[in-house]
Design a protein that fits this description.
Blueprint (H helix, E strand, L loop, with lengths): L1 E2 L4 H12 L4 E5 L2 H14 L5 E5 L8 H14 L4 E4 L14 H25 L7 E6 L12 H23 L7 E6 L20 H11 L5 E2 L3 H16 L2 H21 L6
Parallel strand pairs: 1-2, 2-3, 4-5, 5-6, 6-7
This protein binds NADP nicotinamide-adenine-dinucleotide phosphate.
Amino acid sequence: MGKRASDGIGLAYCKLLAKQGFNILMISRSDEKLKTVQKEVQAQNQDVIVSYEVQDLGKLSTYKEYVDRFQKVFQSIDVGILINNAGIGFTGSYLQMTYEEAEAVFALNNFHATYLCKMLMSTQTSRNERTGIIAVASLMAYYHFPWHIYYSCTKRFIEYLYQGVNFEAQADIRTKGKFDVQCYLPGFVATKLSRKEVGFTIPDTITAAEGALKDLGRREISYGVIDHHILGWLIKFLVKTIPESIIGFILMKEGEATHKKLRSKGYSFI
Ligand SMILES: NC(=O)c1ccc[n+]([C@@H]2O[C@H](COP(=O)([O-])OP(=O)(O)OC[C@H]3O[C@@H](n4cnc5c(N)ncnc54)[C@H](OP(=O)(O)O)[C@@H]3O)[C@@H](O)[C@H]2O)c1
């Protein structure tokens, strides 16, 4: 089951899992896009069922809304792997961001990763096979990147949550061995969201998702590809060793420049 799956990394997960024989349920906002990719994935994998649900995840904000929308869906299918991939980040300083932008980042990045994970774990403890639960965070979780603070913070939240949940799941006799909870932290991947082409340290979506899937059950934190593993290590090393006044200043300049560049092209998000 893939979330936010009609494009980018989410679609890559769906293609890879369909190839491995999983039935696929994709969720995103656009009926038209979903119909097109559903046909594409189905045509390439005729022995599995590829279906979709149209839902703007940014419009759901309470646990009750998630239960009302997805409880029945979860109960009607056997969920082997849940991928919480939805995410958005607006650029701008804390003061510049509008309340609406701030709210949208929180709602889309955090709620589904929190509520759907909990909902699935509560209903799957009697399942015989292991269940995989993945959330897509970002390497930007490793620092409170100025002018991208909300994005960084929401990704940090997911990283902490999934590490904690995986620890508890393995420590609790009721859930031990039943769940593999993983947080995937990519650097730039070539997608519409990043507006980057494949290149040095920028993998295509299939390579990225394939790497993260290979780590499922082996690592609670995955970087997908070795370049991103090294980048993650580098960011952690730099923020630990370089004084905050220097690294913060450099990243602030970079964040501001990115913001100006994006806004001048009419984009508001990363
Ligand atoms: N690409 C990168 O460089 C990069 C790096 C680090 C982390 N990430 C993270 O990876 C995840 C996926 O990013 P991506 O680059 O693959 O994005 P993408 O190429 O823009 O794909 C976005 C997908 O999400 C769907 N979507 C967008 N808003 C939605 C909403 N409100 N509700 C439901 N579905 C929604 C889109 O379909 P519809 O438009 O039809 O809804 C589309 O299928 C995000 O969490 C992002 O933060 C990406």
